[in-house]
Amino acid sequence: MQRLQLLENWIKAQLPQLAEFHSQFSPQDVTLTPASADASFRRYFRLTTGDRSLIAMDAPPQQEDCRPFVHVAKLFGEAGTHVPAVLAQNLADGFLLLSDLGSTTYLQALNEPLNENPGNADNKADLLYRDAVAALLKIQLASEPGVLPEYDGALLLKELNLFPDWYLGKHLQVVPDAKQKMELESVFKKIVQNNLVQPRVFVHRDYHSRNLMVTDPNPGIIDFQDAVYGPITYDLVSLFKDAYIRWDEERILDWLIRYWEQGRKLGLPVGRDFADFYRDFEWMGVQRHIKILGIFARLNYRDGKNAYLADLPLVEGYLRKACERYRELSPLLMLLDEWEGNRPPETKVGYTF
Questions:
Q1: Is the same domain home to 23 and 147?
Q2: CATH code of the domain covering residue 55
Q3: Where is each Aminoglycoside phosphotransferase domain found (predicted)?
């Protein structure tokens, strides 16, 4: 409550300076309502007066740093994408005042029931994802080294190690024996080697349906503060192999081919052979999905955010399907089968892929 009062007082001091942009706001009448949930320590509030609204970010400095958000907002905005404008900032206390991109995420829009022809749902998805790819291409075309942190081998491996620590140890309640640990480390090494030789661009790092807003211009892009300079396929995996919504493999392949064709025309380093590009996409997906399994387990067992457990089966399915396709990943598939036998009965799932 103390931080909330501090945030309200700071906002009241900022509003007079924003009068030329938001004249309807009254410093004497500040009401904050929760705007969205976050998997981190950040909180977002919406300030509404009349038909105007702003978003306030509360990022406790002990756990979060607002500077990367401000930096990436500038980079992505200059690239021509629709990101929140930073209207005021208090980096010492961890407060930002942002323009409001609305409350409709891609995920919400895609899950809305359609009373008309069901085929319209497919059309809606194609239109939304066309816009998402167009924005991603702008971000990638603006890429240059030395501007964002490197998505290097140490970070990729650190993310992979969330899997044995949290998914295996806490969720499945298994501890790999010496042989299994060696096999897992060997697979991790192969995955990271593939990831590191891919061409590098700006990477949002969570470019998916919960962080893309339905806006005009579309999409609005949020939650980009962890952006890095890394593998070109990473954001495509986040988008097309989304942990929160499942698409048929045929549709994913179609969307990915369209991206690859556009990328080639624009001069992005996507290679001349789509088969090679698709393999890189799949291997990048293996890294991301191993990481996500660890993160979702950690969110549940450490942070008490148990809603993420419902999304585990989809991510587990992505991982198993990719491991079935590539001989080099078959040891991981065998390990998954072994550990599946140790899964507590209440957590066992059936795979639909």
A1: no
A2: 3.30.200.20
A3: 31-261
The beta-carbon contacts of 39-47 under 8 Å, at least 24 apart in sequence, are 39/295, 39/299, 39/305, 39/308, 40/64, 45/7, 46/100, 46/103, 47/11
68 and 184: one domain? no
Q: Among 17-21, 108-112, 144-148, where is mean pLDDT lowest?
A: 17-21
Residue the block writes with tokens 């089968």? 337
Q: Give the pLDDT band (50/70/90) at residue 121.
A: confident
Amino acid code (one letter) for 37: A
CATH number at residue 196: 3.90.1200.10
Number of domains the chain is built from: 2
304, 289: one domain: yes
Q: What is the DSSP annotation of 45-69?
A: EEEEETTEEEEEEE--TTT--SHHH
- How far apart (Å, rounded) are the C-alpha atoms in residues 78 and 202? 13
Q: Which residues of 70-83 are buried (b: 16+ CB within 10 A; e: fewer)?
A: eebbebbeebebbb
Cβ atoms of residues 193 and 329 within 8 Å = no
% of the chain beyond a pLDDT of 90: 79
CA 85/CA 319 separation, integer angstroms? 37
- Amino acid letter for position 156: L
Say if residue 64 is in the same domain as residue 112: no
Are the CB atoms for 223 and 211 separated by under 8 Å?
A: yes
CA dist 31 → 98, 135, 278 (Å) = 15, 33, 49
The residue range of the domain holding 263 is 106-347
Angle at 138 between CA 269 and CA 41, to 5 degrees: 105
Q: Is residue 353 part of a domain?
A: no
194 and 93 within one domain: no
> Among positive and negative, which fits the CA dihedral 68, 71, 77, 81?
negative
Question: By the 8 A CB rule, do 296 and 316 touch?
Answer: no
Name residues whose C-beta falls within 8 Å of residue 75's C-beta, 6 or more positions apart in sequence. Answer: 142, 147, 148, 202, 227
